Amino acid sequence: MAASIRLLVRRVIRLSHGNITGPPAGLSARSGSCRGPSVCRCFSDAAGDRNTHFGFETVPETEKAKKVYKVFENVAEKYDVMNDAMSLGVHRLWKDMLLHVMHPQPGVRLLDVAGGTGDIAFRFLEYVRSQQERQQRRAARSMQTPSWEDISSNYSSEDVIESQESSAVVCDINKEMLKVGKQKADGMGVSAGLSWVVGDAEELPFDDDQFDIYTIAFGIRNVTHIDQALQEALRVLKPGGRFMCLEFSKVTNPMLARLYDAYSFQMIPVLGEVIAGDWKSYQYLVESIRKFPDQEEFKGMIEDAGFYTVQYYNLTGGVVALHSGFKL
Length: 328
Fold this sequence. Notes:
Blueprint: H1 2-15, H2 41-44, E1 51-54, E2 57-60, H3 61-75, H4 79-87, H5 90-102, E3 109-113, H6 119-141, H7 148-163, E4 167-172, H8 175-188, E5 194-198, E6 211-217, H9 226-236, E7 237-248, H10 254-266, H11 268-276, H12 279-291, H13 295-304, E8 308-315, E9 320-326
């Protein structure tokens, strides 16, 4: 109920046309979606006459979300196949690296935003399960020649291990993407600890301080107000929680950059047409990558939102960057 009320308040504020430069009286930074040193752009941007980019096209801010929704509605059925085709399968290694850096332990709660097809959530649950099995094997080995004190201690530790249940919430604004993710989960027999929620990255339908880890993989560049999505990520994380973003970025090697540009603009839309029957959506996806901030600029945006110890890792020469920060 509290989350629903906050969601309604934020929507009313965004739809208002007043010249608001800060949070209104009585609305705390914690319950609103503006915090950190930035002047509340999410309030002042609500006028509705501002423009933004949709790929290389300039569109009113009010139209971008609808256009992005249509893109992913069109590509949902072929999304995973196209990911393999476009990246030659390397996207799997990027996502594995995300989990390696995350190194989640049993008992943590994950929110994966814009994660409709479930790739990150599936990896997370498998990783945590393997960690839990490793702990149980260690406990079993220590029981081989135990003392009375060891037996008592190990029984207690096994109870703790069994009670450490992790969970993953996949949140996506696009129902078609969630539908594909659910179908994959059913096919893999994955259901325990996994839930699916329709929600907007800029107005998450969750209470404050709910999650240990927030991830968003190849999704934040499609958000209209990136700063607002970052503020929402900070709000729903618990103190000590971690923000992790996997996103296409700026290639650091000039020769690789030229090859990457040629491949992106000349091959990816063609693959989109051949495999998914949709040239235009994949042309947008290529263009949206070029409009996204580079590694340092995005790091600054994460820090402005209020995260600490922000750092990034370049993958495949900067084709993709993994950004990480903590809520203190």
